[in-house]
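User: I'm putting together notes for a lab meeting next week and I want to include a structural view of one of the chains we've been expressing. I don't have a solved structure, so I'd like a prediction I can at least talk through. The sequence is below, exactly as it appears in our construct file.
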Amino acid sequence: MPDFEYKINRGDWESVEGGQFGVKIDNRVYKSKDQETDTIFIEIQSWEDLIDSLPSLDTMTLCIDQIPDQTPDDASFYVAGTFNGWYR
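Assistant: Thanks for the context. Below is the predicted structure for the 88-residue chain, given as structure tokens.
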């Protein structure tokens, strides 16, 4: 099979796949010499037409994976750092 470029969409070019935050991405490329099988597994990160429903580029997810055993169930957690542009 010859090499080719492709994109995934949901029926038309208004609903084409996008990058992590709905941004435009380049075409996917199929290179037959790189394939060891006839099946390609891909992951769609987002859709360009749904960009308004996705987290913005300045969104950050923080995961707390451990807290002291004595922490009350209703405790509040606060985060400080320069990762968000705050310096005071």
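A couple of points you could mention at the meeting. Strands lie at 4-6, 17-18, 28-30, 46-47. The radius of gyration is 21 Å.

User: Perfect, that's what I needed.
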